[in-house]
Design goal:
The structure is a homodimer.
Chain A lengths: L3 E8 L3 E3 L18 H4 L2 H4 L13 H8 L2 E7 H4 L25 E5 L7 E2 L5 E5 L3 H12 L3 E4 L3 H9 L5 E7 L7 E2 L9 E11 L2 E10 L1
Parallel strand pairs in A: 1-7, 1-8, 3-4, 3-7, 4-6
Antiparallel strand pairs in A: 2-9, 5-6, 8-11, 10-11
């Protein structure tokens, strides 16, 4: 069955982005450190057109995150910079250049309607204005039996958690304290979200913890 | 050199005790789950006079936590139930019975002066009213060159973190969401606390992550 999976880097104090996110600092103050472990990997650098990089205990984790994924869902705050509703002149096409690294269709949950944007490399960005359930349904249809990857940010992950729609959560816990920012596991309301630890992996500068998620 | 070390169980959402701590529920609502991994261990049950128990990947972690410790420090909220200043009639002697499991002297940071209480098994509880630095100094003197163990709760750990006095932090991350309670890594003020990941261990129902702590 097609699952909704989420991979996200998180600080030891529970933030997936630092304080004061902006167009200049989309991950907030200090937030770039959350991705040091992944951008140092050869497995990340090669598909991003960069040479060199490390092979270590994080490599199979990163490779697994790419397997059997047929579509993506993300929040509006992950697709574009804070503020600006439809991203200024409506020409905003995400942070990832003309050929985004997804190579599958991505559904963006937003309050602002917009026509789909077809990118190079197999990704069309579609904008879903009627909620997270519709976005997931459309992504599952697009995924053709494969899984759907939920990219973030914190707010939409928390919404999917609260709605009982997330199946797997891979946290990449980075030894840094951000002291503020976008907090995971917040605003879950009365949802009784249960986690089952599937595995934990010790890697350089990061601990990978995989949880199976269910709701009572 | 004598180090200040801390071992603490923490929920995936960052709480070391659940909401509404009370004498009936000293770990707050749901907080008991944080200790399921340890009370199931033979290495915990034997010194607590109980039979049976498991031997698993958590066993060496628990054994290591007992090695080379010569004294302890804890917060007032860990020694006694919330409220009550000097714990009612002044006869409160902690949660651990006549022979507490520490077998070393423990220094309790509190605002309420009280004479030391000598227990069976090698522990005297002393009450320190002039702050965390004095408590640590007295514990180090008592430890005779061995390390000092900081037991908790969250508030005093955060104080030692903010003061740059903690050397090692072992988090035992439990796959449960408490949704509220006593949060670690809070109220650190302007302290620039740096964590270095020493190791992570995958164990049944818990991930053990050891950090070396320093301040800029």
């Amino acid at each position: 069955m097609s699952k909704l999976r989420c991979h996200i880097s998180i600080s030891a104090d529970g933030f997936v982005a630092g304080p004061n996110q902006s167009e200049a600092e989309p991950l907030g103050e200090g937030g770039e450190q959350l991705h040091d472990w992944v951008v140092s990997l050869a497995a990340w650098r090669e598909p991003h057109g960069k040479q060199g990089g490390e092979v270590n205990e994080s490599t199979p984790i990163m490779e697994e995150s790419l397997e059997n994924v047929g579509a993506g869902v993300m929040g509006r705050n992950m697709f574009g910079p804070p503020g600006g509703g439809d991203w200024g002149d409506g020409e905003w096409k995400g942070w990832w250049g003309d050929e985004p690294p997804f190579h599958y269709d991505v559904f963006i949950v937003t309050h602002h309607p917009r026509e789909p944007v077809e990118m190079e490399g197999g990704t069309t960005f579609s904008f879903v204005t009627d909620g997270i359930e519709t976005a997931l349904q459309r992504a599952k249809e697009s995924a053709g039996g494969q899984d759907v990857m939920l990219s973030g940010g914190a707010e939409i992950i928390n919404q999917y958690l609260a709605a009982g729609l997330l199946d797997e959560l891979d946290l990449h816990v980075v030894p840094v304290l951000l002291g503020g920012g976008a907090r995971l596991f917040e605003d879950l309301g009365d949802a009784e979200v249960a986690l089952e630890q599937v595995r934990a992996v010790d890697a350089p500068g990061v601990t990978h913890v995989k949880y199976r998620v269910s709701t009572a």
